[in-house]
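Still learning. Any example?
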Amino acid sequence: MVDRALAHVNLPPGLAGEIKAVNSVLQVQFPVKLRDGSYHVFKGWRAVHSTHRLPTKGGIRYAPNVSQDEVEALAALMTYKCAIADVPFGGAKGALIVDPRQHDAAEMEAITRRFTRELVEHEFMSPSGNVPAPDMGTGAREMAWMADEYKRLRPQDINHLGCVTGKPVTAGGIRGRVEATG
């Protein structure tokens, strides 16, 4: 898709490669103890396509069949969408291989909080640098857990409410967010 579009524009040498390249990708694997006492190792990613504008912005996807390639492509699409709409963000996207239908709320909270810890500890989540949002398989509930975990890990950050978007109003979100994103 990108190559087809780039064929119609006259870019300086090397710029096409810069437009297509993903800036950075974090891959994480971590265990979570499930309610039955067993442990499961979860795998996930957070890709940052472009930091030409900060913060970077993009959803967190929970799905059983997501891949790093998909995350990188979706991060690039976020950059392009923000640029076309003249929204001052770079593009990012995250995903975790998990089927939310296979876990109860307590397990999903533990999984989400652990994923959040990985993102924060590796500097892939912050109000001024990399801001997640809901995507397929996630919603306001997961964003509230992520925001709470971020605040627990970074209590000195006075801007902690800006670490994610899509939170419930009761957790610092804004009215009309669901309607605004379609």
Notes: The helical segments are 2-6, 15-20, 68-84, 105-121, 140-153, 177-180. The chain has a mean pLDDT of 90. The chain has one domain: 24-180. Residues 34 and 125 are 25 Å apart (CA to CA).
